């Protein structure tokens, strides 16, 4: 009966990179050592990694919403100036009416 370690097949990436292509063996040792250290680090730091991942996902999810709101606020600010300049001097509008007109204008409406 042969030793089971000698009968193990090499992973496909080891076969391809280090046997077929002929990359140096020192790279394989370095890669395997860093892989082992990485697994140990992930095992020991599971909670902080999960918290960082969840924070990153939530920031990525909410960024377009915040960006759209910021662009809409900038549009409303510039539309208020435009509405003030385009209306007659005799027309008096309070701030709420100006904001309503400028919001309508930013959403595709007319003045």
How would you describe this protein?
This protein is mainly α and 111 residues long. The protein has five helices and no strands. The termini are far apart.
List keywords for this structure.
mainly alpha
Structural class: mainly alpha
**Major sheet attributes:** none
Beta strand %: under 5%
The number of E-state strands comes to: 0
Following the backbone from N to C, one meets helices and strands in this order, namely HHHHH
Point out poorly predicted stretches: none
Helix segment tally:
5
On the 0 to 100 scale, the average pLDDT is: 87
- Head-to-tail CA distance between termini: 90 Å
Helix proportion: over 70%
Radius of gyration: 31 Å
* Overall morphology: rod-shaped
In short:
The protein is an all-alpha fold and 111 residues long. Helices cover 77% and strands 0% of the residues.
List the helices and strands and how they pair.
Layout: H1 4-7, H2 12-20, H3 25-44, H4 46-86, H5 95-106
Helix pairs in contact: 4-5
């Amino acid at each position: 009966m042969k030793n089971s370690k000698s009968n193990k097949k090499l992973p496909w990436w080891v076969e391809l990179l280090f046997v077929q292509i002929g990359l140096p063996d020192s790279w394989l040792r370095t890669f395997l050592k860093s892989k082992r250290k990485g697994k140990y680090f992930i095992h020991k730091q599971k909670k902080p990694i999960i918290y960082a991942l969840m924070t990153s996902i939530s920031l990525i999810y909410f960024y377009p919403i915040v960006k759209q709101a910021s662009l809409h606020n900038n549009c409303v600010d510039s539309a208020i100036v435009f509405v003030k300049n385009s209306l007659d001097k005799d027309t008096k509008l309070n701030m709420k009416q100006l904001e309503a007109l400028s919001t309508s204008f930013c959403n595709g409406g007319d003045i």
